[in-house]
Amino acid sequence: MSTEEREFIKSVDNTILTASAKTLKQLQELDVKTQLDGNSFYEEYATSLESKKEKPLFKTRPFSKNKPY
Prior knowledge:
Blueprint: H1 3-17, H2 21-37, H3 41-52
């Protein structure tokens, strides 16, 4: 598993932990669908984000000359 995949999974997990009741209901429906289809929840979630183009999959940090990365 790549670093990007691990970061994405952490991001999804954080989204779940901080989600509203409405969002949790939608995530639950996606989870049931993926279980019935035998697909990965994280892959289906990523696909749904890409298709809706709601937000980027990964956040990027702004470049700063004052902070080393």
